[in-house]
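User: tokens in, sequence out, please.
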């Protein structure tokens, strides 16, 4: 459902962030993108919806080549790609409900959104989503009154109310404590499963990635170094992605966490 062909991004500074990346993601697959700082993870995610313009190569969402679209057509296609950010990107002075509904801005006309008059079906869906993520009681609170984990749940609802085919998730847990991080990752993966949604999750925490996804992509210097199931991430593989480190500790901690999740 998503296909990248020879995707290259070279920034004006000369940094080659992506070097001819090929990637195919089937419908409903949740994939973690790991790799050291500067490997090109955020660039990859942002080149897919063209928040960052690729230098060359193609991105296909289904049959549509995103890289060939005019700005109007791209705006319409972006509705099919929900984005979840590390810093939540909520409007602080708006309520939880208003933040969630802002995910419909790509669908409603300018005046409707300006006057915040969303169709009732959108409001109903926002309530359903807030209920699903455990925030129904918070609908009228201002975003700046929420904890980090609650904010991220609002960010998730805002992405889902777009009714996307694909989620692009950029370090969703980087600002959260370990327990909340696990809850948020679990929630994202459960929601993808419920909705048959594909997702690419850029995540620094290897153990967390291994715990929840079916497929891991390891990026290094803008190229795919590893593509496989989480249990194939051996210490040797992690060393090729990240360089020398004591990986046994990371892998052991996954085993412990797995037990905890299974309980
Ligand atoms: N706007 C920019 N202008 C110039 N170079 C950039 C820009 N954004 C990223 N880069 C460079 O591109 C490369 C990849 O950066 P990117 O942010 O995609 O990596 P990352 O894997 O997401 O890193 P991190 O895990 O630290 O967020 C780096 O060398 C970075 O310095």
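Assistant: Sequence out:
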């Amino acid at each position: 459902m998503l296909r990248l062909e020879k995707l290259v991004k070279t920034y004006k500074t000369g940094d080659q962030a992506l070097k001819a990346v090929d990637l195919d993601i089937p419908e409903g697959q949740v994939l973690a993108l790991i790799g050291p700082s500067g490997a090109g993870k955020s660039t990859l995610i942002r080149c897919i919806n063209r928040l960052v313009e690729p230098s060359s190569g193609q991105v296909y969402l289904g049959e549509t080549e995103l890289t060939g679209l005019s700005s109007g057509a791209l705006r319409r296609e972006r509705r099919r790609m929900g984005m979840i950010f590390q810093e939540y990107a909520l409007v602080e002075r708006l309520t939880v409900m208003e933040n969630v509904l802002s995910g419909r801005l790509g669908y409603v006309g300018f005046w409707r959104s300006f006057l915040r008059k969303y169709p009732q079906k959108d409001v109903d869906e926002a309530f359903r989503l807030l209920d699903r993520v455990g925030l129904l009681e918070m609908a009228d609170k201002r975003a700046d009154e929420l904890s980090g984990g609650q904010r991220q749940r609002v960010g998730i609802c805002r992405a889902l109310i777009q009714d996307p085919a694909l989620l692009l998730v950029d370090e969703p847990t980087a600002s959260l404590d370990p327990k909340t991080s696990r809850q948020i990752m679990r929630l994202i993966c459960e929601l993808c499963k419920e909705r048959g949604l594909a997702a690419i999750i850029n995540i620094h925490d290897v153990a967390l990635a291994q715990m929840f996804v079916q497929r891991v992509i390891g990026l290094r210097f803008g190229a795919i170094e590893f593509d496989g199931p989480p249990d194939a991430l051996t210490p040797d593989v992690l060393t090729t992605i990240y360089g020398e480190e004591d990986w046994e500790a990371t892998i052991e901690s996954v085993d412990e966490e797995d037990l905890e999740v299974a309980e």
